[in-house]
Design a protein that fits this description.
Layout lengths: L1 E6 L14 E6 L2 E7 L3 H7 L7 E5 L5 H4 L2 H10 L6 E5 L3 H23 L8 E5 L4 E6 L2 E7 L9 E6 L4 E4 L7 H7 L4 E7 L1 H8 L5 H11 L3 H11 L3 E8 L6 H9 L5 E4 L4 E2 L1
Parallel strand pairs: 3-4, 4-5, 5-6, 10-11, 11-12, 12-13
Antiparallel strand pairs: 1-2, 1-14, 2-3, 7-8, 8-9, 9-10
Helix pairs in contact: 5-8, 6-7, 8-9
Length: about 280
């Protein structure tokens, strides 16, 4: 099992140096996507992933930086030759959201089925809404488990653990520090965790008309740099990988690394787009 960071930015606004949040896990050539920020299809191509081998998509929550291209990725995979069923997991109202996307894509899909002889797109999509933690997917040696995490006001929001007999990789999703994530990540080889630089956030929000509300949201629903190492240390993971950087630009890698290392003695990787783990 390998993983790749397809996009490491945080927040919905496009960034110059980082792509929107998305990750991939590859097991035996099969591809599993965690979150679908804008541009995930292009990032998958740059990573050399074969979208015909896409087997499942997992959405941790329904902020637009995590789900904007969920339908688009599936449609692009279909246009690339995907002809097997794909499971799509995420919080409610996922089924209604995918139905809306199918209506949006209907003209293109109908045309390509008639003109190019492609299989029926909608019949390939197997939608599963998640409203609780536990085992959500299993295929061969791969088991995926979910845990409810704290990312108000969006409930439910999830972290995910991908595990084979050889390795366990956990994706925090967006979350404030919480026991549920620590328990899910216990003993994992790799924890891919979001991170926020509280000091830089002040400079970011003070120029905005909604500064007060945005500051409250960020503080309540994300993990500060000074806390992310504590989470990894409590979970006893081998390697901490930082991602979903808030802010996404303007802070040196070493500053992120030093801040996370205060309470975590293990290996720390400052994530970047297209980094294989």
């Amino acid at each position: 099992m390998k993983a790749i960071l397809l996009g490491t930015a945080g927040g919905p606004a496009p960034k110059r140096t980082r792509s929107a949040p998305a990750n991939a896990v590859v097991v035996g050539g099969d591809v599993y996507i965690v979150d679908c920020g804008n541009g995930v299809g292009r990032q998958a191509a740059l990573a050399g992933l074969d979208l015909r081998r896409l087997r499942a998509v997992f959405l941790t929550h329904h902020h637009s930086d995590h789900n904007a291209d969920a339908g688009t990725l599936l449609q692009l995979a279909w246009s690339a030759g995907l002809d097997r069923a794909v499971q799509i997991f995420g919080p409610p109202p996922l089924r209604a959201m995918m139905g809306a996307f199918l209506r949006f894509a209907e003209v293109d899909v109908r045309t390509r089925i008639a003109d190019e002889g492609r299989p029926d797109f909608a019949s390939l999509l197997q939608i599963a809404e998640m409203d609780a933690g536990g085992t959500v997917f299993q295929s061969g040696d791969l088991i995926v488990r979910a845990a409810l995490v704290e990312h108000p006001p969006l409930k439910p929001s999830f972290a995910l653990r991908f595990e084979t007999p050889e390795r366990a990789i956990v994706f925090s999703g967006d979350t404030a520090p919480c026991d549920a994530l620590v328990n899910l990540a216990r003993g994992a080889d790799v924890l891919v965790h979001e991170v926020m630089h509280a000091g830089a956030i002040e400079e970011l929000v003070e120029r905005l008309s909604n500064a007060g509300r945005l500051r409250e949201h960020l503080t309540a629903s994300h993990t500060r740099l000074q806390d992310v190492g504590k989470v990894a240390g409590r979970a006893g993971v081998g390697t901490l990988v930082l991602t979903h950087f808030v802010p996404s630009e303007g802070i040196a890698d070493e500053e992120w690394r030093v801040g996370a290392a205060r309470d975590f003695p293990g290996e720390i990787i400052v994530g970047s787009d297209l980094l294989w783990l």
